[in-house]
Fold this sequence. Notes:
The protein has helices at 22-54, 61-87, 106-114, 117-146, 151-170, 175-229, 231-259, 262-267, 269-278, 296-317, 353-361, 388-394, 396-401; strands spanning 284-289, 322-329, 332-339, 366-370, 377-384. By secondary structure, the protein is an alpha+beta fold. The chain has a five-stranded mixed sheet, covered by helices on one side. The two termini are 15 Å apart. Mean pLDDT is 78; it is low at 1-10, 98-103 and 394-402.
Amino acid sequence: MTMSPQVPDNDRPPPARLIPDRWTWKEIGHLLANLPLTIVECVYAVCMIGVGVALSVTVVGLPMLAVSLHGARQIGRVERGRARAMLGVRIEEPSAMVRSRRETGFFPWLWSSVKDPVGWRAVLYSFVRLPWGVVTFGVTLVSMIALWPVLPYITRFLANADRAMVRGLLSPSDELERRIAELEADRGVVVDTAAADLRRIERDLHDGAQARLVALAMGLGLAKEKLTADPEAAARMVDEAHGEVKVALQELRDLARGIHPAVLTDRGLDAALSAIASRCTVPVTVNVDLPARPAEAIEGIAYFTVSELLQNVSKHSAARSATVEVWRTGSRLMLQVTDDGHGGASMDGGTGMAGLAERLGAVDGLFVLDSPVGGPTTVTAELPWRDRDASKRAGPRNLRRG
């Protein structure tokens, strides 16, 4: 999954001209509003942050500082909105403060709030903007009166300085911060996927094996009652119950395979993918070329990705054949599923492609769909490679990070 770039300035102003246009007037409005707004923001920063720092040796000081920095974040949000509306500068919102799930309670919140870089940069922005607001207000006002012929060029110069300040102090600080924002969204995808899987397992148990076992118990109860009065009828009931047991066992095996197939654990991707290919309604050629087995979590994701793609081939493609290829390139595990069907698959076509893309994105994977109308359809996916031995040595900690 690629990092989110800075939002492009799709409404970038044209070069300044002698005759003021709408961009000139918007920039003038922004520059004249700098002074009153920055006075309010600077007074807030001096009073709230200053008092919080001064009282930091007391019980109330650090909580006041933390709350003040949350307020400074809102100042940054307002200024980004103003720059977006008046200057055409579109910048990502910085990520929310993220703490580990183990770090719950007041003191972890206090510590993460006090060291919040986004809040501190907003405070710095407020201090820098006070003298700059005086300059922009005065120069713009004088230019509107005495320097009208060159007013568009003066305002554009001052507005460009404002744009640089907003980008420098109010945009996400680095790739790490943008990465945190992405992980926040990915965490929601992982939670939703896990919840959906649990609901599916519960539904399959309730509607399938559980219902069949209840019927089996009732049948055996009736057979027990008829055992002395009608042995032949009891024998038939026991025989039927025996058949029901076989069906229930097969349903449980299918359910267990859907959770994590034993063949994948015992023999790896080659054998596991060959097994699901044999159940596909379309002849499938499987080619797995891996120097070693990847970490169990990565192996499982690869297996279920191919499994869902082959289900799509069976249900939607009208293909005559399909191919599954798995190989390693550098630090990535590559998957490619191709079929010669009618094509036309899309990410929003109800075939689960969007869900697969989200699941792969949540673990730093990529998902690319190429399906022109008329075919063929090629789905290429890649996952981060992690060695199985390293994963085992790291133990549960590594699994949680994965």
